[in-house]
Amino acid sequence: MGVSNNITACLNFLSLLCAIPIISAGVWLSSKPDNECVRLLRWPLLLLGLLLLLVSLAGFVGAFWNRQGLLALHLFCMAILVLLLLALLVLAFVVTRDDGSYAVPGRAYKEYRLDRYSAWLRGTVVGSAAHWGRIRACLADSDVCAKLGQNNYIPADQFFMTPNISPLQSGCCKPPTVCGFGYVNPTVWVNPANPTADPDCYLWSNEQSQLCYGCNACKAGLLGNLRKEWRKANVIVIVALVVLIWVYIIGCSAFKNAQTEELFRRYKRGWT
């Protein structure tokens, strides 16, 4: 195996290592309750990570056994995967740029408004009534609100000062603060005599299978959760993408050098 192929093999081993955190981020995202319910967003990162793993392995084999055709195919596929990862990263940043959260006086946690998120995210995830009906049923079957409701005896002032309530729990497991409901426990509230005109106030139910799953606040909380998780995953993708672009550029140079070495050997054999 020539020097250039040695370099290519090492670079492909490095790109293979880059696939591991991308796959890990994809598995982490797909394991979250919101991503389990929003199936559209579960697989892109995981699928790209697995394809990157396979392509890197093919490049490593091609370099180790000096299969130039396999290396050329590897570089072509790697270019496509890098572009797809870059497109996914740009899309994730664009659609999660808008933050629907807002602070509520006297509350440590935030609440969320649906109209403050990007139109693409709203339309794709919660735009269809049938689609939201399936997501709603999935959320109701999850343990998102059950975990919040475990603290049945937590006092109101302590609950209001709890900062670690997720956007999904804030939107789906309790009524919006503007409704003026009286606190009993995190998932049971007393209706006020004159609720505000916010439609979500009339959709709230103390029935644990209903809660605020039909509310716009729940849709906004779901998008808030997705935004928070994808922003974390984007950090991993950025680091991996920078390394992959660097590996690809050097890999192309090493492939050209390997081709030159092969031509030189053939030319030398022709003279001897």
Automatic annotation (TrEMBL):
Subcellular location: Membrane
Superkingdom: Eukaryota
Record GO cellular component, one term: membrane
Membrane-spanning parts: 6-29, 41-65, 71-95, 233-251
Membrane topology annotation: Multi-pass membrane protein
GO-annotated biological processes: auxin-activated signaling pathway
Key words, A-Z: Membrane, Transmembrane, Transmembrane helix
One Pfam family matching this protein: Tetraspanin
InterPro entries xrefs: TET_plant, Tetraspanin/Peripherin
PANTHER family noted in UniProt: TETRASPANIN-8-RELATED
Family indicated by similarity: Belongs to the tetraspanin (TM4SF) family.
Protein name: Tetraspanin-2
Native source organism of the sequence: Stephania cephalantha
Lineage of origin: Eukaryota, Viridiplantae, Streptophyta, Embryophyta, Tracheophyta
